[in-house]
Design brief:
Length: about 775
């Protein structure tokens, strides 16, 4: 998805929608299951959860990693470990990265006290002592004195930058946005961070447009790594105009040096500050700049600049960032390019791509360079550090298709030092959707990188299907995100890890034996455009799959699960997108009105540029031809999109997550329609003042509609109920899987023999696991017609 951007104009010319007529308010007397769409089948019982009787006992869920066993025929662990940054002080080494699993990205730091020979997983907590939320990726590391913050890491999250600090590398704190990352805007990119004598300095770029075609430099300063001040960016402009992005920062003897890449000559531009970033003076390093080719690093006594030209690299040194001396030429056989230059207090490390692979060289003074070992050819080096006499390199290992983590430790002689990262934590399983029909419950998701299907007769015991046809395995990571029963059988959809991406589509006559259906011509990508399937629905007119087609929305229709055709737009821009006008569908529901899908578009006319997301629905009377309807952005919302939708009769509710404030906050929001999706009215989903919220499911119940979501960061489960789709009441259930330490969410539900069964997940710093919630239903909760 496009990156989140900050404050936008809420009035962009979208058509106003009609208010909901009072006469159309209703209560629902029946509970439809069976042949409903996947969205409907999943969310119906979620509504029963809310409508169920209140109890003094906690509505606890059960940790279900053991209940949802992986198939015996499943592949190897498909979780991906990322190693993005490394820093060292003496023999103490810290690596920053994370585990990218089906259940979400988990921030991880690894500590070594013996120069990289052994590593242990560090503790990561929020400032309140809670496990951090998923989806935040550390990328840049710096180390300073323990009295001044110790270790600092900067990384990415939706809508901005994240700051972590640690006094010793063993215990990390995710700093609150209010005190740390508010200095980093949604349109900022951090490129480097370093300890610079009196604190930490980070450099990067910002973009008013949001697409960085107008990049300008930014410098951030911090005394302790916790609170940051945005300064100096306005002082640093390329002398000949054009764009400028800062890429390097280093410091020696109280002098801070930053380097930038300009779109015009001179391509390498450098500045120096001797007053902690208050004022800056331009300077030049010897040599000619025909293209961006300069890199900086600093030991405790020497500033190093390496300029590469053709098949060689030349080192320049300076004691103060002003006086520069040509020091040495780095002679490496088969030299192609310098990949990375880093330094600790006692030595600098250069990683160089050669004809025969990646070679490492080290220097204590920049005047002489010694071989420090090699890594496999094709590996991606993201960072390196000199740790005592060892050299530690991290990145991605091309031997695993670019998805494996690279960790190489070499000793003083350049020989390999055996090492390793602790095993991944968490169950490696995720349950995304449920469906029920004919006495069978089907759950779909992922397990250890492969798509997974489980079945149950009672919602209490689950077993993986026997994948005799190898329908659930494939190249890259596989995952099913939607399932629906229908008159011709079961349909499950998701994503395949092949490149370019294409839908994973499987069908079954009985929910037990599954076959691949994505070999049809309709599912083949056009050129390099990826095709992504997100959700599915079944109705009297057949089956519909919705998702993405490159920059546009993608839809598929089948009358019988045997033949498939692509959906077509009713208007010129209804489905087709561009880099500036993207479209995507996330979910779909069906009814007498036909099909309605929910998702979003990017609006190039909104303040802030091309990446502003707007809530959107699409309407189709038959599942084949689709019309786009833009919904008005609510007051106080910068941008938002709609992942969830549900319907009963002609009444529909769709909801999602909005970005608020300066791009750091989130809020649940949604819309209702009483005429089959032709007109819409915003709805209010209240939470405790000041709390962030999001939406994880939408449901319809015998008593009305329900929206399920999370409140807080990390999130606890929150439920909103409504009898008519207009007025909403929140409540927060308590117990395991609902509240407490970690990130809790409920995302799929169904009913079995008078019992409610719900699935979701809970994630903490110790790992993540699926959860199952079960509760008997009373007579007034079963929706007797």
């Amino acid at each position: 998805m496009p990156p989140t951007t900050e404050l936008t104009d809420p009035d962009v010319g979208y058509p106003a929608t009609d208010p909901m007529p009072p006469g159309r308010q209703k209560r629902f007397r029946s509970l439809l299951i069976g042949g409903a769409s996947v969205t409907f089948a999943i969310i119906v019982a979620a509504g029963v959860l809310v409508a169920s009787r209140q109890s003094d006992e906690p509505a606890a869920a059960e940790l279900a990693g053991n209940l949802f066993a992986a198939s015996p025929a499943g592949g190897a662990d498909g979780r991906q470990l990322e190693l993005n940054g490394v820093a060292a002080v003496g023999a103490t080494v810290v690596i920053a990265g994370g585990e990218d699993a089906d259940s979400g990205y988990r921030t991880e730091f690894f500590l070594s006290k013996d120069a990289g020979r052994t590593f242990a997983r560090a503790q990561v907590r929020t400032a309140k002592g809670e496990p951090p939320v998923a989806g935040e990726v550390p990328r840049h590391l710096a180390a300073g004195p323990a009295s001044s913050g110790g270790w600092v890491a900067l990384g990415d999250r939706v809508g901005g930058t994240v700051v972590w600090t640690s006094p010793d590398g063993a215990a990390w704190t995710r700093q609150p946005d209010a005190t740390a990352s508010l200095a980093f805007g949604p349109r900022d990119r951090v490129a480097d961070v370093a300890w610079t004598g009196n604190g930490f300095t980070a450099v990067g770029q910002t973009s008013d447009k949001g697409d960085f075609t107008d990049a300008s430099p930014v410098v951030w300063l911090s005394r302790d790594g916790r609170s940051w001040e945005r300064r100096a960016g306005w002082r640093l402009h390329p002398p000949t105009g054009g764009t400028l992005a800062l890429t390097d920062v280093a410091s020696v003897k109280g002098a801070i040096v930053v380097r930038g890449e300009s779109s015009n000559k001179p391509y390498d531009i450098t500045w120096r500050s001797t007053d902690a970033g208050n004022t800056w003076q331009a300077f030049a390093v010897p040599g000619e700049s025909r293209k961006p080719e300069l890199t900086f690093a600093a030991t405790a006594t020497t500033m190093l600049a390496v300029r590469q030209s053709g098949s060689r690299a030349t080192t320049y040194t300076s004691p103060d960032g002003v006086r520069w001396t040509t020091a040495a030429r780095i002679d490496v056989p088969g030299f192609r390019r310098l990949l990375r230059l880093t330094a600790t207090s006692h030595a600098a490390v250069a990683a160089i791509e050669t004809d025969s692979g990646i070679r490492l060289v080290r220097s204590t003074d920049g005047r002489s360079w010694q071989p420090a070992g090699t890594t496999a050819g094709g590996a991606e080096v993201r960072d390196a550090a000199a740790a005592a006499d060892n050299t530690v390199v991290v990145g991605a290992d091309a031997a695993h298709g670019g998805t494996g983590a690279l960790l190489a430790v070499r000793d003083k002689a350049g020989k390999d030092v055996p090492t390793g990262i602790p095993n991944a934590i968490g169950s490696g399983k995720v349950v995304d959707a449920l469906g029920a029909a004919d006495g069978r419950v089907v759950a779909v998701g992922g397990a250890n990188g492969e798509a997974a299907v489980w079945t149950s007769a009672d919602g209490a015991t689950w077993r993986p299907v026997q994948d005799k046809e190898k329908a659930l395995a494939g190249q890259g990571r596989q995952r099913l995100t939607g399932v629906t029963p229908g008159f011709a059988g079961w349909l499950a959809v998701g994503s395949s890890g092949r490149a370019p991406g294409r839908p994973l589509v499987v069908t079954s006559a009985d929910g037990e034996s599954w076959r691949r259906a994505d070999g049809a011509a309709a599912f083949q990508p056009d050129g390099t455009n990826p095709l992504i399937a997100r959700g599915a629905a079944a109705g009297p007119d057949g089956y519909v799959i919705v998702g993405e087609d490159g920059f546009g929305a993608g839809t598929w229709w089948s009358p019988d699960l045997k033949t498939w055709e692509r959906g077509i737009p009713a208007g010129e821009d209804n489905l087709v997108g561009t880099p500036a006008t993207r479209r995507w569908m996330h979910s779909v529901t069906s009814g007498m009105f036909g099909f309605v899908a929910a998702g979003g578009v990017t609006d190039p006319n909104a303040y802030g540029g091309v990446f502003i997301r707007r809530p959107t629905v699409w309407i189709s009377p038959d599942g084949r031809k689709w019309s786009l309807v833009r919904l008005p952005i609510p007051a106080g919302v910068n941008e938002g999109w709609l992942p969830h939708i549900a319907s009963h009769d002609d009444v529909l509710v769709t909801a999602g997550t909005a970005v608020t404030g300066n791009g750091t906050g989130t809020a649940a929001f949604g819309y209702a329609s009483v005429d089959g999706g032709r007109s819409w009215q915003p709805i209010s989903l209240p939470v405790v003042a000041g709390e962030q919220s999001s939406v994880t499911a939408v449901a319809v119940t015998p008593r009305g509609f329900v929206v399920a979501g999370t409140v807080g960061r990390p999130g606890d489960v929150v439920i909103w109920t409504s009898a008519d789709g207009r007025s909403w009441k929140p409540e927060q259930p308590r117990g395991i899987g609902m509240s407490g330490p970690g990130d809790q969410r409920l995302t799929a539900f169904t009913t079995v023999d008078g019992e409610l069964v719900g699935v979701g997940s809970t994630a903490t710093g110790q790992g993540d696991e699926p959860t199952v919630w079960r509760r008997p239903l009373s007579s007034d909760e079963t929706g007797t017609p």
